[in-house]
Write a structure and sequence with these properties.
Length: 222
Amino acid sequence: MSTTRPYPPSNEDPTDHHPRALLRRLYRDEFGYDLSPAEDARVAATLASSTYGELMPAATDHLVEQLGLGPGDVFYDLGSGLGKVVLQVALRAPVRRCIGIELVRSRHRVAQRILGKVRAQAQLRAAECGFRLGDMMRARISDATVVYTCSTAFSTKFMNLLAERLARLPPGLRWVSTQDIDDNPWFRLERVLRLDMSWRRRSKVHVYRLANPALRCRRRAT
Ligand SMILES: C[S@@+](CC[C@H](N)C(=O)[O-])C[C@H]1O[C@@H](n2cnc3c(N)ncnc32)[C@H](O)[C@@H]1O
């Protein structure tokens, strides 16, 4: 179970949070905001959004605690940008696999480069960690137990298609989304967290659970 540390933390001492201090140093000169017109067009064609923004580091730690991630978990960040969330989760949580999927090559390259540096300087708690270049709508994610999408700017149409896609994964899957999703037969809202994003403090982050098919039918029948 999660311990209750105050969130957002006050008077942070960076030396108390080794993974955060490490990542802050490694990412000091990396920024994901600027894209070439070709990269921008590539993302726009998927109906998602190339708009960049991040979950803040203290918020990522809080999310890891709240999710209680363990060795049975496979965590995917769909639209992993520069890879900060994936690397922080992999440093913090003893998950089986921690994977980022990103469509923009320049962001993906930064993530891979920083992963190499992290491996050289620290011990990952995730048994496996990696980044894949590709469209989250096509990527192989069948082993996921937790999916995170920083999807505030994604279109509703894209979110509905993504919900349909994630609904094909095994029941019990948790989907952490910064955008609330339309009502659908598959996902139940479990909780709403308030987390700091790069563009807004205490933003709502929704944790959905994929119901098993039997429960879905029963609910529809009532
Ligand atoms: C708001 S950023 C989130 C970055 C990171 N997950 C975080 O929270 O720090 C969303 C990312 O999703 C990526 N993206 C958008 N559409 C995508 C798609 N269809 N497949 C994969 N990545 C996509 C964008 O390029 C962008 O880097």
